[in-house]
Amino acid sequence: MSNLPVAAREERKTGQELIQLVSFELEGEEYGIDVLAVREIIRMPSITKMPNTPDYVDGIINLRGTVVPIISLRKRFGLDEREKNNQSRILVMEVGNDLTGFVVDAVAEVIRISASEIQPSPSIAQGNAAQSCITGVINHAERLLIVLDLNRLFSDEEKATFEALE
Q1: What is the CATH number of the domain that holds 145?
Q2: Cα end-to-end distance, the chain, whole Å
Q3: What number of other Cβ atoms are within 10 A of residue 110's Cβ?
Q4: What is the pLDDT of residues 38-47, one digit of tens each?
Q5: How many domains in the chain?
Q6: Strand ranges (DSSP E) for the chain?
Q7: pLDDT above 80 (res 128)
Q8: In sequence order, which ranges of 66-155 are alpha helices (DSSP H)?
Q9: Domain range for 47
């Protein structure tokens, strides 16, 4: 079974599989996520804090009648929290069967790459939350981009906690 994200795939005339990724930034590093996993990208709304939730849960928002838990990827990846600014965005994605929002520093672009460009990630940080969802690394336009599968970011217990917030 492939470790690649389930993505918008096309076949070039050479038979190469193309994948589209939404690239975003956290702490000056660039990450990519399957474009088909992203429902929408929104500006920072007012977030309602929820008591007794893990520290990486910023709270909840009402997105057109749907309650969506908001996760700080900075906190989840163990990065220092910083003030949200006009570049900050929320990637609204389906995690399991529910919508979840992920706060990122900025969204850059949608890129198209060949599946063969994705290299396995080095296993230097085994066991932490960020490492568990890394599916690979690509060298795109002379910069490294870390490819993530955010469905692998949470345990079943954590997913149940988010369902309870809705």
Answers
A1: 2.40.50.180
A2: 33
A3: 13
A4: 999 999 999 9
A5: 1
A6: 9-11, 17-26, 29-34, 38-43, 57-63, 66-72, 89-95, 98-104, 106-114, 134-140, 143-148
A7: no
A8: 73-76, 129-132
A9: 9-165
